[in-house]
């Protein structure tokens, strides 16, 4: 990296934390760095929160710019990918449970799950980590007074119609 570009990069780092050479993660106190960086009293030469996200991001940028960032660490600091959307049954289960104002634990116990794992299992179903088998989903649907088809309806309007259809008496369906 050319010296002028490095100087500009260090100056941009100074705007974030005056008096600190964030590339090294220490205070700058030698004469060469004093020309490049703002002068600050020694008392301010400490980071208030060295593990803050901004500090970490700036440190990584500085290390990459100077070539001192090991390639094997790149996967640790890679940006987190966006989470995929929740499966439709997860969203519907959470909506139905919240509509009935029932806790995950209470729903699981009422559906016949073991009381020690009821909350965890319902949470895993709602977050899309696991998919309930047909029998479990039938028991959850019975507790929530909804047909199983409600949990698989892709369209919100269709799901609402399925739920309303179930609520109507048989003569008015």
From TrEMBL:
<protein>
    <submittedName>
        <fullName>Ribosome-binding protein aMBF1 (Putative translation factor)</fullName>
    </submittedName>
</protein>
<feature type="domain" description="HTH cro/C1-type">
    <location>
        <begin position="93"/>
        <end position="151"/>
    </location>
</feature>
<dbReference type="GO" id="GO:0003677">
    <property type="term" value="F:DNA binding"/>
</dbReference>
<dbReference type="Pfam" id="PF13560">
    <property type="entry name" value="HTH_31"/>
</dbReference>
<dbReference type="InterPro" id="IPR001387">
    <property type="entry name" value="Cro/C1-type_HTH"/>
</dbReference>
<dbReference type="InterPro" id="IPR010982">
    <property type="entry name" value="Lambda_DNA-bd_dom_sf"/>
</dbReference>
């Amino acid at each position: 990296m050319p010296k002028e570009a490095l100087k500009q990069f260090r100056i941009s780092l100074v705007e974030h934390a005056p008096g600190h050479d964030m590339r090294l993660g220490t205070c700058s106190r030698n004469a060469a760095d004093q020309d490049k960086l703002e002068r600050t009293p020694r008392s301010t030469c400490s980071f208030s929160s060295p593990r803050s996200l901004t500090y970490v991001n700036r440190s990584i940028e500085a290390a990459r710019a100077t070539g001192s960032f090991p390639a094997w660490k790149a996967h640790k600091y890679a940006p987190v990918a966006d989470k995929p959307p929740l499966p439709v049954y997860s969203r519907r289960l959470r909506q139905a449970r919240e509509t009935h104002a029932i806790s995950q634990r209470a729903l699981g116990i009422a559906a016949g799950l073991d009381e020690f794992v009821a909350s965890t299992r319902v949470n895993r179903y709602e977050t899309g980590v696991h998919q309930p088998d047909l029998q479990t989903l039938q028991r959850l649907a019975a507790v929530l007074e909804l047909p199983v088809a409600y949990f698989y309806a892709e369209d919100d309007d269709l799901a609402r119609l399925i739920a309303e259809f179930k609520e109507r008496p048989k003569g008015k369906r």
